[in-house]
Specification:
CATH class of the largest domain: Alpha Beta
CATH superfamily of the largest domain: Metalloenzyme, LuxS/M16 peptidase-like
Number of strands: 11
Number of helices: 16
Largest sheet: 6 strands, mixed
Helix content: 40-55%
Radius of gyration: 23 Å
Strand order of the largest sheet: 1-2-6-3-5-4
Order of helices and strands: EEEHHEEHHHHHEHEEHHEEHHHHHEH
CATH architecture of the largest domain: 2-Layer Sandwich
Number of domains: 2
Length: 428
């Protein structure tokens, strides 16, 4: 089991403690409310570049080599990522190195250097990172960015979520410093210490590393455009042996009262090898190698997404097979047997979160950052709620979500004009 507690430092920084004495490791993670949703279009990518620059030397470490070696020397692992509405920085170590790791994490977050030479190197690294989403023609073909833009940016899909070569190369030292000072402030950050730790033994270390953090939060997250009255679609031609598509239905935001039902629905449709999409589109028809269904959630919006890829000649067949399953799902819902079987799977997956200090840190840290609840929604509470879901609850959510006016379809790859026309007709 674990023990949860939360404290606020005098400067306002929220700190969550997840004590898990039965394991050896500890995870120290920071969640900052900053990402592409907070960026001006002319500075798209600044949050991502800032995340990279945190590792480019600090007050304690002259450069990234010294910093990364210090983490390696204690057998630790570090990670960081930037999503549209938050950034995370994570260090995982054996619990006997917690003091070292806290010192390093504090230095990463509070002692960042913004040297021009380092910025130019990191820009080049990010541009290389972006090439995994660029086709042989040089076009950006990240289907996840396209789906986000199609659904939530009023169909404006020409702008990359994390910037392009022009915006990234145009970011200055002053841009980075201003962004850092605006968002890396106590009110906009949550620190989570999870694993084999004792709160009373680390609280003074946290005050030492983070007590001097100051600043007032002035950022504002612009609302997303959610109005939609008919299916939307985006076809992006790209030279490829296969064609990929993503079918998205607008659903619910993070921690909505119906989120558990969306997890259950996603699992029935495409969560495992015995799911409907896998059995019918893959096993029976042999149209795809893999197909998955999963929820995507932000603080204020969400969707249920189906993703797969197939050869060019099978685009219509595969789309029809997927839409046939969606129509059947809408008309007939799920069976009592499917409900019970999937409840058991989702229950197990939710409980397994409690075995991982990183999963626990993400669970409580992101919830605190995005929603700041009076009382946290714990994994065990969610697991128990799964058994309270009734068949009629599921049917109601299915009828709310899987309708044409919430449908978005993104295709990337090789396709003909006729194939595009026929595929669009299947979405209605």
């Amino acid at each position: 089991m674990y023990t949860y507690s939360k404290e606020a430092l005098p400067n306002g920084l929220r700190v969550i403690f997840i004590e898990m004495p039965h394991i050896h490791s500890a995870v120290l993670s920071a969640y900052i409310g900053v990402g592409s949703r907070y960026e001006e279009e002319r500075r798209l990518g600044v949050s991502h570049l800032l995340e990279h620059m945190l590792f480019r030397g600090t007050r304690q470490f002259a450069n990234s080599f010294e910093l990364l070696q210090a983490i390696d020397n204690i057998g630790g692992d570090s990670d960081a990522y930037t999503s549209p509405e938050h950034t995370a920085v994570i260090i995982q170590v054996h619990n006997k190195y917690i003091e070292n790791a806290l010192s390093i994490l504090g230095d990463l977050l509070l002692g960042a250097n913004f040297k021009q030479d380092d910025i130019e190197i990191e820009k080049r690294i990010i541009l290389e990172e972006m090439k995994q989403f660029v086709d042989v023609k040089g076009d950006y073909v990240c289907i996840d960015d396209m789906s986000f833009s199609l659904m939530w940016k009023d169909g404006a899909t020409s702008t990359y979520l994390f910037g392009d070569e022009k915006t990234i190369t145009g970011i200055t030292v002053e841009d980075l410093k201003a962004h850092y000072e605006r968002f890396f402030v106590p009110e906009n950050m949550v620190l989570c210490i999870s694993g084999n730790i004792k709160k009373e033994q680390v609280i003074h270390l946290i005050n030492k590393s983070f007590g001097n953090l100051q600043g007032k939060f002035t950022g504002e997250k612009p609302p997303l455009k959610t109005t939609q009255t008919e299916p939307r679609y985006l076809f992006k031609k790209s030279p490829s042996q296969t064609v990929s598509f993503k079918l998205c239905h607008k659903a619910y935001p993070y921690k909505h009262k119906n989120v558990l039902i969306t997890l259950l629905i996603s699992d029935v449709l495409g969560g495992g090898i015995s799911s409907r999409m896998s059995l019918n589109v893959r096993e029976k028809l042999g149209l795809v190698y893999d197909i998955a269904c999963y929820p995507t959630m932000f603080s204020d919006v969400g969707s249920i997404d189906i993703y797969t890829s197939t050869k060019k000649s099978n685009l219509e067949k595969t789309t029809k097979a997927v839409m046939d399953e969606i129509h059947k799902f809408y008309r007939e819902g799920i069976t009592e047997q499917e409900l019970k079987r999937t409840e058991a799977r989702v229950f197990s997956q939710t409980q397994l979160i409690m075995d991982s200090p990183l999963a626990m840190a993400n669970w409580f840290g992101i919830e605190e950052l995005l929603l700041a609840p009076q009382m946290p929604d714990t994994p065990e509470k969610q697991a128990q709620k799964i058994h309270d879901i009734k068949l009629e609850d599921v049917q109601k959510v299915i009828s709310e979500i899987f309708v044409p006016e919430k449908r978005n379809f993104i295709v990337v790859g090789a396709f003909s004009w006729l194939s595009k026309k026929h595929t669009i007709s299947l979405l209605k």
